[in-house]
Amino acid sequence: MQYIRLTRSDDFTKKLSQQVDEYLKTNNLKRFGNWRILVKVPLLFSMFLLPYFLMVFGVIENHWAQFFMTAIMGVGMAGIGLSIMHDANHGAFSKYGWLNKVMSFSMEMLGGFNLNWRIQHNVLHHSFTNVHDMDEDIDSIGLLRFSPNKPHKKVHRFQAYYAWFFYGFMTLAWMTNKDFMQLARYSKEGLLQAQNTTFRKAMTQLVISKVIYYTYIIAIPLLVMDVTWWQVLIGFFVMHFICGIILAFVFQVAHVMPETEFMTKDGYTEKNDDISWAKHQLMTTANFENWNPLLTWYVGGLNFQIEHHLFPDISHIHYPKIAKIVKKTAKEYGVQYNYHKTFGSAIFNHLRLLKQLGRA
């Protein structure tokens, strides 16, 4: 696999790192999560598991109520991924490595595969943000165009109107074919070696995790609930569709925006032949609605996406304070800090970019 130079440091990068380190030391803080992130575990897992058990044990039998329960599960599912799994796979959930590993398996509980996530997200996305053919987050099915470097098709003219529908299929794709296809590709590209595993071992783990997932999420409800197979599948679809839309919009408005840069692996941009890693992250990332503590709590601080990309090994509970340091330092060095006041305005501008890309 070909890599580009995204690791160069500069005075901006050094001062930023120094000031954040100083902030943590001065306030006697560790980079990991504390009791505030631990509180999320029972709350978010309850949002996902409680509706499931209420239906499986026959407490809720009304089909419309069950439909509503699957929707709640979708919201809980997204919350677990954003607030718990995400920090854990970055090693920032806890100072205890074993606890990070345990919490990273929440990905398997939701039907995904944490090994694939670490490669796609931690390695490729964080190292090569918005770089065509390197960052899989801006790669997509042919009906969607997230980068000006991707070939244009006539159907893209309408993507601003139908994109949300395909966003809803994001986690459904993980559950079915994507995890298997990704693992085979990562093995071929030699990316499994860096994760200290082999294709055979990883594939065995993947198959086992899928069997367990489909057993508890589909087989058990079919066996113990007074529902038909198509009602179970509708509930399964609703849960994943809601989760997929939430996850997609949170991640998309952080990078696929009118003000963010898009690059190729053969060069950075027409304006910058060589940039530092930190500046690259600010050029390709945007924040939204940082003033809302409830949103920050639910999305695991990913509305502070800039701070997360600069310091991915620091827990999201520290991002609101770190953001003040980043903003000040960025202003001092004349580095653009992309921000949208509300989540709604961020989504609007994301769709506006999709419309622009569709006209190309």
From TrEMBL:
Keyword match Ion transport: no
CDD domains named in the record: Delta6-FADS-like
GO molecular function: acyl-CoA 6-desaturase activity
Gene Ontology biological process terms, A to Z: lipid biosynthetic process
Enzyme Commission numbers on file: 1.14.19.3
Record flagged with keyword Transmembrane helix: yes
Transmembrane segments: 37-60, 66-86, 158-175, 211-230, 236-257
GO cellular component: membrane
Keyword entries, A-Z: Membrane, Oxidoreductase, Transmembrane, Transmembrane helix
Domain Fatty acid desaturase: 63-339
Protein name: Linoleoyl-CoA desaturase
